[in-house]
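Let us work through a complete example step by step.
Step 1: write down the sequence.
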Amino acid sequence: IFDVKYVGTFNDQADCLDLRATGSYTDQTYTQSNDDNIKIWAEQSSRRHSTILQGKAGCGINLSSYGYGEIEGSSVTGVYAHRITHAKSDNWNGCGEGMQPGGEGYGGLICSRSCALAFNSKGLVDTEISGLYVPDILDANSISRVFALGVNKQGYFCGADSRPSSDFVTKYPIQNIVLKNSAIYPEPGCMSSIFDDAGIVEWGNPSITFFDESSSNTKICDFEGALSMHENPSYFVCGFSDQADAEKYCMTTNGVGSAINVEYNIVNGANPNINFPTCGMKAAGTTATE
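Step 2: predict the structure and record it as tokens.
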């Protein structure tokens, strides 16, 4: 799909382009949606240079479309979200945990809400998002969570209470997801979220990386292409569980010293092994709970 405009879907909260064939490719698209906008459903998919207008109900980028699709080897490059209206008080994309009255709380600019269905045994693996840009526009744009990734088996669209256990996997890998070279200028209204409400995720090492490892020198605190938020100063993903560690090791464009901006809802207490910029630790870019 090349040079396509798809607009007028705010009223009915309709999803946008949902490409399900392996190797699907889009370039130079302009899409308006009040629900999920860019949906990655199939392996080896490529979405390039996408301008999106995003309403409040869905996610700007939905990885695996609630876990119905396998996405290994896919990439999303160049997403320009010139309008987004997520709200921290919203049932779908707000700060709530899991199921909320009338909606579901594990949404965000980037989300998964994976159901861990049996026909998606590969999980969320080997996928890259690069060049995501959200301008502030005099406070017109609003962000709740920047990312919300994990398994939400009890979620609104999964039907765990009404489906046989054979419909779901017992192990769900999340590994080698990369979010890099991206700038989110509105101040997020909520912490980002990593979650697993079924205790079945096999977290890679790393599971998710938030900078460009190939061009960075982490030994000297040089993290190129890091996902950044806000400005003056901009700050980076800080996934510690202890605020004292965040103040000593997490980073902003003014140097070392930041605040926790990721929360974890993982029922079995597993370490999700996310890889984010740190400075001054024995192993820079450490995992969340080291």
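Step 3: interpret the result. Confidence is low (pLDDT under 50) at residues 283-290.
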